[in-house]
């Protein structure tokens, strides 16, 4: 399965909530968040909320403890570990932030299973305040995608991953939100899209499924995610084994042909005089 890359969204895919809302709501800042949401980009608003939390003496440890209580379906961790043990390379593409994602993965014992995390940078500054900055600095230039939010185009990340793979690997993409629609449009015919059923990305895909080149396999909860993901991985494995067998047969036939061509021809029968 060295030929498969599984790309996970994070919020409402690995964990069963939106991590930004989970932290803001749990720490009692929902009203302020809702007041500022109409006038600020989401990513900038989250950085502002971290400033407000710090001003109210909420610490990094407080935020981490809230994240560790985030809901997650009991089959998600086994699904991730199984995909990794079967030889898949695992990556994350998320519009959350690095501190939230890594805190949760480390808490779940999953950090080592992911080779790459693509998300908005999140770090603790010298004052002990969590800073969240955009993956793409939209204050300097636009990423040029009119589908995605200004701070992050997941489709562009998928294209970068595809370029690095040079067509040698299949991609399985799992997601739930509107931000996962752009990458689904970038997947190829050999890839697989796993949208969460009855979530925004599912609705967008259902609007015109012919726009998606990849095979579409929906899931509804952690149990469904595990079942569908492992079925796809198994299907890819069977196909790879068939291809390898066909190549071995082809090589074997070529060797037999070469061997036969090198054998001495039988002597011609003498012609009676």
Please give the structural blueprint.
Layout: E1 4-8, H1 19-26, H2 30-36, H3 42-55, H4 60-68, H5 76-85, E2 89-97, H6 98-108, E3 114-120, E4 122-124, E5 130-132, H7 154-165, E6 170-175, H8 181-186, E7 192-195, H9 200-207, E8 215-216, H10 222-261
Active site: 9, 11
Pfam family, one: Put_Phosphatase
Binding site for Mg(2+): 9, 11, 176
Comma- or semicolon-separated keywords:
273 residues; Rossmann fold; six-stranded parallel sheet; two-stranded antiparallel ribbon
Overall body shape: globular
CATH homologous superfamily classification: HAD superfamily/HAD-like
* Rg: 25 Å
Mean pLDDT: 90
Tell me the CATH topology: Rossmann fold
> Helix and strand succession?
EHHHHHEHEEEHEHEHEH
CATH class: Alpha Beta
CATH architecture: 3-Layer(aba) Sandwich
Low confidence ranges: 250-273
- Quickly count the domains: 1
Number of helices: 10
Q: Work out the strand percent.
A: 5-15%
Binding site for Mg(2+): 9, 11, 176
Binding site for substrate: 20, 95
Organism: Durio zibethinus (Durian)
GO molecular function: metal ion binding; phosphatase activity
Overview of the structural elements:
There is one protein chain. The chain has ten helices and eight strands. It is an alpha/beta fold and 273 residues long. It has a single domain, classed as Rossmann fold (3-Layer(aba) Sandwich), CATH 3.40.50. The strands form two sheets. Strands 3-2-1-6-7-8 form a six-stranded parallel sheet, with helices on both faces. Strands 4-5 form a two-stranded antiparallel ribbon. α6 links the parallel β2 and β3. α5 packs parallel to α10. The chain is globular and about 65 Å long. The protein starts with a strand and ends in a 12-residue tail after the last helix.
């Amino acid at each position: 399965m060295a030929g498969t890359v599984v790309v996970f969204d994070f919020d409402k895919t690995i964990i069963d909530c939106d991590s930004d809302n989970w932290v803001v709501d749990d720490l009692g800042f929902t009203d302020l968040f809702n007041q500022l949401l109409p006038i600020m980009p989401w990513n900038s608003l989250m950085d502002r909320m971290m400033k407000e939390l710090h001003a109210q003496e909420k610490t990094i440890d407080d935020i981490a403890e809230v994240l560790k209580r985030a809901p997650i379906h009991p089959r998600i961790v086994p699904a991730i570990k199984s995909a990794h043990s079967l030889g898949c390379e695992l990556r994350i593409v998320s519009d959350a932030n690095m501190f939230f994602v890594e805190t949760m993965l480390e808490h779940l014992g999953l950090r080592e299973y992911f080779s790459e995390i693509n998300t908005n940078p999140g770090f603790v500054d010298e004052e002990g305040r969590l800073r969240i900055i955009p993956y793409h600095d939209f204050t300097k230039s636009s990423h040029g995608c009119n589908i995605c939010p200004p701070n992050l185009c997941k489709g562009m990340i998928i294209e970068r991953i595809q370029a690095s793979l040079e067509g040698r690997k299949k991609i399985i993409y799992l997601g739930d939100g509107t931000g996962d629609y752009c990458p689904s449009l970038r997947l190829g015919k050999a890839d697989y899209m796993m949208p969460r059923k009855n979530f925004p990305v599912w609705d967008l895909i259902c609007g015109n499924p012919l726009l998606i080149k990849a095979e579409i396999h929906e899931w509804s909860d952690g149990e469904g995610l595990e079942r569908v993901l492992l079925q796809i991985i198994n299907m890819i494995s069977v196909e790879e084994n068939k291809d390898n067998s066909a190549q071995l047969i082809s090589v074997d036939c070529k060797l037999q042909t070469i061997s036969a061509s090198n054998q001495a021809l039988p002597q011609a029968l003498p012609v009676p005089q």
